[in-house]
Amino acid sequence: MKQHKQLWKEAFGSSDKYIDFFFRNRIGKLKAFSQYENGELSSMTYLDPNQVNFFGNELNLSYVTGVATKGKFRKQGRMKLLLKSAFEEEIEKKKPLIFVATLDEKYYYSLGFRGVFYRESWQVDEFKSIPGEVISFGKMQTEQQNEVVSFSNDQLRQGKYDFYTMRDLEYCRMQYKGMKALRGDMVGIYNQGHELFAVVEYFIQQ
Question: Are 204 and 183 in contact (CB under 8 A)?
């Protein structure tokens, strides 16, 4: 596992705090695929199972994450072989598709992927006070956390998205921990009538 952490650091530049969070809290639920050269880790990737809504159907599908190859082993086709091995396992399980979030979608074209969703990002330079109350997910009672889960799923459903990851209490608790590891938070925003009207996740860019 030490080599996996080192490669994650090299490939993504994540903070030690986030890497510790990922390998302590997430890794046990993921399927790892690794390639070695004389005992040295050369490439790695993970399949992360997610409960998703796909055109109104609830499915368990895998999300590709942690795609990384050590510098001196790049441009040798190692990752494509690793991904193909992972995909073959999913095909055997009769999974209809696999999804990935990437900064370079063209890399995945030869593996059958196509871009279908593009997220808009905003940079927040200053915070202004808003009427009502902002509560961190970690400080909420279980009843309030369940309200966040229901609210989030309702918003996604009403948004008429063709594909999205469904929320449950475990998912939201893990998202909260992940945001905290990135020096951010997951919060619920309540109006002056104490009604939840927004859920926000944010982190501080490294």
Answer: yes
